[in-house]
Amino acid sequence: MRYDRCKWLFAVLLSAVSPWGAGAASAQSMPVMEVVVGNNFGHLPMFVGVEKGLFRKHGVDVKLKVVNIGSQMVTSMQKNEVQMGDMSVTTFLKARHGGDPFRVIGVIQSDATRANADEPLAIVARKGSGIRAGNIEDLKGKRIALSRGQTSDEYLKMVLARRNMKYEDVEIIDIGNGSQTQLATLLKEGKADASVCWEPFNTMVLDQAAESYVVVRGGGHMSYIMVATTHEPTLKTSPDVVRKFVAGLAAASQYTRQHRDEAVEIFAKWVPGLDPAVGKKAIQHISYDPRVSAAVIQAFEAAEDDVLSNTLKGAARLNVPDQFAASFMADAQKSNPEYFSDLPPLPAGR
Question: Is 122-217 a CATH 1.10.10.10 domain?
């Protein structure tokens, strides 16, 4: 009896000091990983991995905190509310320039075969806006709705710069930290001439704002990559948990690729308000390739160029390869090659 009580007391004390949360520290229990993700399709494999038990299959219990935009993901990481955070390449780079000790441990949304896959991003105009499809110059003087400082904002800057236009040539209607569902309402009510966003919200605008249309989708302006990140200390203190998480991510990415309609249905359970029929159209514009390739590194380099040119002028350049802890995904490819068997081969030398 006394021995059993000592074992119980030891387990309680161990749980209290566990970095992975209460109840996760006993020898028999599974480590818990809290992850902040966005309420958009760039994070879809995370929802799938949790719902289908693919993270648990690899030995880690993932708990999701769902937010609207990248700056909220960074804040959750900064406050140590979570151990991991998904974010876009531009959000990540700006956080690193700000001194946040984040490292990339995996890729969620990407096309590892090329460095300019930005098809999830688009500019959508309302009927009667005077903006012609494909004619970026028509944006001059127009009211453009987006979340300032987020990837959609960076994308607009790049689109304008390629046409030798200035950011000041348009009027920004900033929806701030709110849900991107506001964009459809702004166009429907004529309070904005166009919107800039990611999926599924571009397709949602097209569905809800009558006779709205795409001005430009993608266009090779940037590579819209979504990455999984963690704090540098976590890489040192809990590498095995990180390794299990990355293996689960690889499994979830493949499941998402192979079961796109089901993945949308899963997403709709987590993020109310999405019509699954709209989501099933939106997901066709997205690639879920978790490999860290030369093209991915090249995309990061290009994103760093754009951040330094458009947003953080005069800042010192980051060493892009140093931002990756790429060994974790490489280990997943070795231990579970079946999760990558449906992906196209990388170009020679990549």
Answer: no
